[in-house]
Amino acid sequence: MQGTLQLQWADPPRALPGRAQAAPQLDAWLDIGPGHRIPLDVTQAKRAAGDLYALSNRRVAVSYTARADIASSSRVMSASGALASISAIVPTDRLPARALATGADGRVMASAPVLGATRWITLMCKFADVAVEQKPRSFFQNQYGNAPGQLGHYWSEVSYGQVNLAGSSAHGWYTLPKPRAAYLADVNGKQKAQLSELFADCASVADAEVDFSGIQGVNLMFNGELDGNAWGGGACTTLDGVYVCTRVTWSPPWSFANLAPLAHEMGHGYGLPHSNNSDGDSDTYDNPWDVMSDAWRNATSDATYGLLPKHPNMYQRERLGWLPASRKRVIAADNRETVEVVLDAGSVLKTVNAQLVVLAMPAQPDPYRTVIYTLEARRRTGTYEANLAGDAVIIHKLEDYGIAYSIDRDTPPANFSSNEGSMLKVGGRWNTPDELHWVEVVSATAQGFVVRVGPRPRSMSSPAPVLERPVPVAAASSPAPGTASSPPAAVRVVRAGRRACVALPSRLRASPLCVLLER
Predict the structure, then answer these.
(1) Which one, 58, 104, 116, 182, has least CB within 10 Å?
(2) Burial of 427 (0-12, 13-18, 19+ CB in 10 A)
(3) What is the distance between the alpha carbons of residues 141 and 143, in angstroms, rounded to a whole number?
């Protein structure tokens, strides 16, 4: 089955003090045309695609282990088809050459670069039964500006100029044809916003005066709560008379009042998954180093745009094609040398030094399951990074099909990775769990750190000499003339051992092994 893969992430607001953080959600759909969508089991889809996030908003083919029947309503699979298991998801669109290769770190380079002008349109829509308009159109229009603290400036900075929001604009407020309750459905006992319907209705009422040609994304702003979440990812609808699949975000007032959560949702639109930390709990919003995890803590603020977004981790920037190849250093899994790397912070826009160090691990038969560790430097500076927890080297583990987990050296790890254990500072040292690599921060520089990386020490020993055992002299008298004498038992054992050693393949005739056989 072929269509456009749509991933939609749900993100709740920041939990109040003393309250548990609500869990995120991820929905996956295969859109095969107007009014025809197939829900995909996310667990199966991750396993079948390898890097599901790299395929977001792209044309794919989905293969099932059995024939899947599509219900005529096209919203869901029929009862018989729902039992089919997804066996493979592969891209069918044209890929850049690098997406077909395995990287030096052993992982598949499956992501399509996001480069150049990514024009976004903001549509401000009011529910039919909610009259308030929280912000004027000028507020949303100015969000796309190129001054520090605005989205145009932010995305250009984190992409090192590879992405811009040229031509982006805001429009509205438009009144939706239905009240808020009509856009909510009961799913497993919980209210869930009908995202495709909201997108279609909001775009329809704006279509007469908005030029959607050439857009790369749509930010939908609503004047009332949705289902308790903001959403980001992609969706499809008819724009300017053409059925289009594009990046989309859905923001209630608490989300668009702050630039940080809005940038988080736009990150999902670009295909970025959530990041996490290494405490092992179910809360993905506990890594304050990364806008794609905890957008709220350690954020800078602006009087107009509220909390501002921090940078995403360096690996996610590299997989979208934003990090120049010259700024990435890969330490091979079989590295046998100690190397020093000048590691500049990710906030440095122009540099000849590394900004991402990859510690490769042994390649797995499935390259998507190959685990790597990354090093990046962070410094409290600039418009977006000034409130970070500290200046340090941050370590991430990449696993779970591309999720970045910040490493905490404390035992047990902290609930939020803004602690000292998450920061490798000057004099600090860390080993990968299998001790293939060790890392030490040697010194600080004006723009980052000098990092030393070395291999696990090897125990070297020379082969043991061949053991020559003296042949005992028998105490008995000499045998009678003409009588063949049997060699002593010790001699027979030595000869048998030597025959056994000779019988071995040549590559196994190591001296210590032969010695054992002769004993």
Answers:
(1) 116
(2) exposed
(3) 5
Q: What is the DSSP string of 379-409?
A: -S-HHHHTTSS-SEEEEEEEETTTEEEE---
**128 contact partners, CB below 8 Å, separation of at least 6:** 175, 176, 177, 178, 179, 180
> Encoding tokens for residue 459?
């125990």
> CB-side exposure of 218: number of CA atoms within 13 Å?
34
Other C-beta atoms within 10 Å of 493: how many?
A: 15
Nearest to 192 by CA among 228, 236, 234: 228
Distance CA 136, CA 177 (A): 21
- Residue 122, both tokens: 């903001």
Percent of the chain scoring above 70 in pLDDT: 82
Owner of token pair 């349109």: 121
Cβ contact 142:240 at 8 Å: no
pLDDT of residue 99: 43
Q: 């506990």: which residue's tokens?
A: 286
pTM of the predicted model, to two decimals?
A: 0.83
86: three-class secondary structure by DSSP: strand
Name residue, tokens 């083919």.
61
Residues paired with 125 in a beta bridge: 174, 222
- At 39, the amino acid letter reads P
The confidence score (pLDDT) of residue 21 equals 74
pLDDT at 417: 92
Which residue type, as a one-letter code, is found at position 234?
G
Beta strands in 351-508 (DSSP E): 356-360, 372-378, 392-399, 403-406, 429-431, 437-444, 448-455
**DSSP per-residue string spanning 97-119:** GGGGSB-TTS-B--PPP--EE--
Q: Which helix (H) or strand (E) holds 125?
A: strand 120-126
Stretch (H or E) spanning 4: strand 2-11
HSE-CB at 244 with a 13 A cutoff on CA atoms is 19
Residue 150 has pLDDT above 70, yes or no: yes
